[in-house]
Hints:
Radius of gyration: 72 Å
Oligomer: single chain
Number of strands: 63
Amino acid sequence: MTTASFSIYSLAVGSHTITASYTSDGNFNLSSGTLTQTVSKADTTTAHTSAVNPTRFGQSTTFTATVSVVSPGTTAVAPPTGTMTFYDGSASLGTGTLSTTGGATTATFSTYKLVVGSHSITVSYNGDGNFNVSTSAPMTQSVLKADTTTTLASSVNPTRFGQSTTFTATVSVVAPGTIAVASPTGMVTFYDGSTSIGSGTLSTSGGVTTASVSTNGLGVGSHSITAGYAGDGNFNISSSAVVTQSVLTADTTTALKSSANPSYWSAPVTFTATVGVVAPGTTAVASPTGMVTFFDGTTSIGSGTLSTAGGVTTASFSTSSLVLGPHPITATYPADGNFNSSTTSALSQSVVVVPVTVNVTPSPTSLQYSDLLTASALIVTPAGTAPPAGSVQFQINGDNFGPAQTVSSSAASFSGQVLRGPSGLTVPGASTLKATFTPADPTHYNASTPGSIGFTLSQEDARAYYTGALLASTGSINSTSANVTLAATIKDITAVPSTDITYIASQNDQYPGDIRNASMTFVNRDTGAVLCTASVGLVSLSDSTVGTATCTSTPLAANSTAGGTQYTIGIIVGGYYTRNMSQDDTVINVYIPQSNFITGGGYLINSSSAGLYPGAPGQRTNFGFNVKYNKSGTNLQGNINVIVRNNGRVYQIKGNSMTSLVVNYCPIPGEPGYQSSGCGTPVSPCTGNASATCPITAVFNGKASIQDITDPLNSISIDGNATLQVTMTDYGTPATSDTIGITVWNKSGGMWFSSHWNTTRTIEQLLDGGALAVH
């Protein structure tokens, strides 16, 4: 058999019709034959390797897959082409493109993204037109946690106590670990020695991973600070080296203030020291503690314990012992374990004299003259000062109101009657009550400006009784007018008995005044004209509630001798008293005289004599008189002589200037000597002799002098211009029923002498010896 062969490896995968043709030779003819040649894909195997195994987290490794052709397939025509897929378990990691170099067909894939742990890595060849797929056996790739380093830094070192500093830990990844996939996460714990002072969460910025903690809580001293990274799923733990943090005591400043400057002597003053911390020190952890000592100059005056409220640290000290004058006050904080000492600048504390205010109160605020007034004074000094000792002098309108009163419990009072003093009261109207405080210790207390307050003072009620002549004569038969001696008794309301017709219970009080502070005005009620004014004098020096007043009227006309001319006399009481009532009015008659005369002599045994020079009870008062008109009837002539005895003294009253003589025949009701049986005739102007049934009365007025004649050789003049009034009733013979009343008023209105006083007026007394004759 003759054969021919041809070898080929370049047939592509698929079916091929192969024809063989014999071209003939000289012996044989050409011929050909065909067959179908099938070319199948060659099988492959895949193997792979890891460039680094194990790796650290984030470390890159390259997987290399090699595809080999299984015989009888070859790479003579072409090597395998296409891609390789790399798997972590069933998860595709990525692909690589096959390339053939030096007869080796490979594909690679690099990754750093594998997480920590074991990974089953396989590679699949995806085949191509010439080669079948194949998958490698699994390979275990181990990924370990990356190592780290931790470094620590302090933002401020050293710090002052309470100053905040920030500790920053930087966590770095040790190669071959990287942060390409992730940075370290989790917490970093910071330690002072072995004590945790806090932790911070890692964060990464600009490729730098840090955690921080800030603290102001470190105590004074040295602190070994470390930071420990706790690791996470990808990174191992690490700790920093020790950083020595120094904390120094904080500086302080101390300020001082006074609760009152200037302060008053004896008043407590509180000094408050405020201790502040100088930045960068703070009180965030603790405030300054301990004691602050207060000094007056170099002398310690006390101390106070520091306390903190609302972030302010203070200590206070109170004292009321500082003497008058300036005081340089300082306060020293002596430091504690956390804060340095400091001293204030000097505060000049001035201690001054205590001012005093007097508050004065009258009670009641409206009253009458001589009523009881209670004056109260409250001594007021600034709060906290010691109450002053001393006295208060009350005054009313400049006059002392009672003696100086001792102050007790900051108060003084005096109750007394509001009476007239040298400066005089304002009655009626507004008066001023003043209180002047005099301190017992003028060194430490100012004498106060007197406290003053007004009160209303009105006139006291009085009663007035007319006691002057009811009958008066002109000076001669040729005269048609008379200057009449008018007189009245005036009483303070306290001297008016309840039996008095003028008594009014609501006006009565128990506080008598001095009736001499009243004034008296006699008026003609018929015309309103003022007849005369008179001052008031006392009846008795021992009784200031009863007084008398007398004055001579302006001329009153007498129109006839028969019945005379009548005048209604009114009494107006003024001054410190008030009374002006028609109830007190009296009607008097003014006559043109006839040729009347009176004479008499005798004595009285004193029983109710009164006045400034009264006759002593039981002793005699002698009298003698002789009064008549001259032959022409143009003027009165005569005299009266009265001898008064009292307390071993003898007084002589001599009247020798007669101004009026009135004789009244057959007195009518209300007149002295009136007889209820009636006396019939004769009546004035008839003359006649007096009898028991037809008495004759007489009134004469004049001027008199008074002398003390106890020593006849050395008489003493008492008054040379007194006013004299004598009333008498002649009951005829025998003279056993004759009566006489003698009154002498002094120039000031007071009564020198009354022969028989009934507390209001002089009444006639029965003669104890002698006789009277009225014609």
